[in-house]
Amino acid sequence: MNSTTALYSKRVCDRYDCCFSISYARFNSTQYFQGRMVNYSQGGLYLESKEAIRPGASIIIRVQYNLDADSASKVREGFRSLTLGEVKWCKELILEASPYYGVGVKYYELDY
User: What is the pLDDT of residues 33-85, one digit of tens each?
Assistant: First the structure.
């Protein structure tokens, strides 16, 4: 089993690809940043941003609009247009000498 197979075999929920513009802020902050949601599941989401976010931070995320005009993204189980989550990991990615970050976010459980 290679490392990619091992990673996917640990996932509890199906992931759905998407391309949404988002804004996010650290919880209780008024400073918002822009990013892009790349995929989501029932348990969380993956976003990309020019800003690093410390693991353990609580952030609020708001979906703004679909960046992929050629496809109408079907909303599936786990999609949240406004949510609060915990940053589980943040990794620096390099694209044409401009650093940006991949961020894994776990949704906080909704308490009805």
Answer: 999 999 999 999 999 999 999 999 999 999 998 777 655 556 677 788 889 99
Residue 46 and residue 105 in contact, taking contact as beta carbons nearer than 8 Å: yes
- Residue range 102-111, pLDDT digits in tens: 999 999 987 7
Alpha carbons 77 and 64: distance in angstroms, whole number = 18
Amino acid (1-letter code) at residue 53: I
Question: Locate tokens 């999609």: which residue?
Answer: 79
Which domains does the chain possess? 13-107 (2.40.10.220)
d(CA 46, CA 15): 10
For residues 92 and 48, is the Cβ–Cβ distance under 8 A? no
Per the CB < 8 A criterion, the answer to whether 91 and 101 are in contact is yes
